[in-house]
Amino acid sequence: MNRFINWLKGLFNKTMDKLEDPEMMLEQAKRDMQVALQSNQEKAVQAITQKNMLENMLNDQKRKSQTLETQATMALKQDKREMATQLMREKMNVDASIANVQGSYDQAVQTVEQIKIGIKRQQEEVRKKTAEAMVLKTQWKQAQIQNSITKALDGLTFENQFEGFGAVTDRIREKQSEASARQEMQNESLTGKMMQLEDSSRDMEAESELEKLEQRLGLKAAPITVDATQTVSVTDGGVAAAAPGATEGEAEKALADLEKRLNSGN
Q: Which of 54, 56, 131, 254 lies at a C-alpha separation of 20 to 30 Å from 19?
């Protein structure tokens, strides 16, 4: 039931909006003016018709009066005075009627002239109002177009779109910077590893050359590997052998003693 009532209210409001539409209101006002003009024109036609009827009646009475006067004149010429008197009496009655009709006719003429002036003014007013209605309709349509344009412009979101592009641009730049940073770190890691390898290789080469130099100077004897468990070093003063199972500390001690003897001999 509530839905039906709401539907009726919506229909009523929609109908009222249509009825209050300026274009429809102007059309209705134009029709009302046309109807009023046609009604007044019809009344004017009736008034003119009555005036014409009075005019015809007046003309008939005038012709009858003239005829009676002519007949009375003929009766007098024929020495028929009694007949002439009767004709003159009848003419006098007709003349009295003519006076009454003349008054009504004169009044009808004035009324018709006033109606004609009123009709002309009304016609001019209708033409004026019709032109104004056309201007108002044009202004109404222009207002509707401007309103539509304004609504369309209100719906545009250039700023938000540009902000979106800016956000995307910033995001892309951030990712590009991050990718560059990762690439830089990766390059540094690879470069560091390569440099460490090169440094290790150079350290080994330097250590090897240093050992060769020590051997040439007699500062260090070249080791001779006998087997997996025994190492024999040969020097000018004799042979120092490490017994099988000797610990690394003992071997280092023996090597230090050998170097002392070599240094003392030099």
A: 131
